[in-house]
Protein: Protein HESO1-like
Amino acid sequence: MSRNPFLDPTLQEILQVIKPTRADWDTRIGVIDQLRSVVQSVECLRGATVQPFGSFVSNLFTRWGDLDISVDLFSGSSILFTGKKQKQTLLGHLLRALRANGLWYKLQFVIHARVPILKIVSGHQRISCDISIDNLEGLLKSRFLFWISEIDGRFRDLVLLVKEWAKAHNINDSKSGTFNSYSLSLLVIFHLQTCVPAILPPLRDIYPKSAVDDLKGVRKTAEESIAQVTAANIARFKSGTGKSANRSSLSELLVSFFAKFSDINLKAQELGVCPFTGRWENISTNTTWLPKTYSLFVEDPFEQPQNAARSVSRRNLDKIAQVFQITSRSLASDCNSNSIIAVLTGQHIQQLLYRTISLHSQYHANGTHNVRNLHGQTRPWNQQMQQNWSQNYNTPNPPYWPPQQSWPQNNPRNLQRQPSLQGQAWPVITQTQTQQKSQNKNGNRPFKNTSAGSSQNQGHIGKPSGHMSGVNSARPATIIPSQRGQMWRPRYEH
Structure:
């Protein structure tokens, strides 16, 4: 159990920096809309839909997160198998169209991957995108992660912190033989399943079989069936009577996460991580995992018996365990805020945090009260703070926060509407959403230094070199209820 008084407030400071703002959402929506236009210009892709998935849909992306995109060929009909050769051909046509368009750069065709991918970067927004064809499995897994994040908010916070920590220590790159982000999310799920008392159930209690196996027949029917079963099981778990609640703080859960996997290199020789059953499983007795051998086995609960950590090499597993051990010891000691930031974040996040702490001190020195930090202001903003913001950043007061705009469903260029879960609909992203202009004519460039925000007000967070968003904030609008409940939207921080 963590008793360090600096840990919890420092984790909140980190989260305020790395969590996306409305501008970050709008930036990615703009990229999706631009990509949709290119796809529609390719003759063999006419009628295909452009669907985001991954961390953007699961609401587990940081401010500098990439976009995963699936170009779906048969989104409104039966689920058909698209062969690898056909996917390679279609991505080749799209690659030529993107080159001709001239608004994309760093185009790379990963043609021989297990799932062929086209990697690109949007020229204006500087957002990296991985494009695949008919990636229904990726879409489904993203939705499951979103549903799981709705069970307990600590899950999302832990995933964001763990991903930033892994990037800072160079162990979040599957191409280099370490974790991919999906496997890190599964480790967090497993940790919350094995806490005492458990925070998340075994995922077989959420969906009783490999969900990817049920992606067959008419797509809409299959997706709605999976969503209904999952919704009912989540509601049953959340309303469970007689079970004791785990009230561990975020810092306590993070410290125990690093401690739990400090000897992962030793455990992995005999045991595999199984979020489906919510326990360590013996590899030698699990016939579905054999005869393949891996350095680390983290079973994909939604596509069994696939190994989500198959990219982790033996040499890197020892390095990963060492990073877990060092981090665990550091956080268990009486470390101060600076040392916590140093062990959990990369250099560009550290610069933003240290700058925030410095400005925070300056504001207190000037007699400004009730200000936690420039990323999470108490509300309402006082007049002095508003004047300081305008003078320092040459812009009017930050836009209202949280935004109240829904994504209309009746636009013919919407992404395909997905089945709802517990009264919420999946993201419906429109072209008009990306064409909103800032009310401030002088606010055409992102800020370089820091951000400000509250549950009512939010500015932009300055990004490190090469991570400029180039998108201004959207105008406030109104939430439009859908026929099946409230429109799905990201969870904005209060």
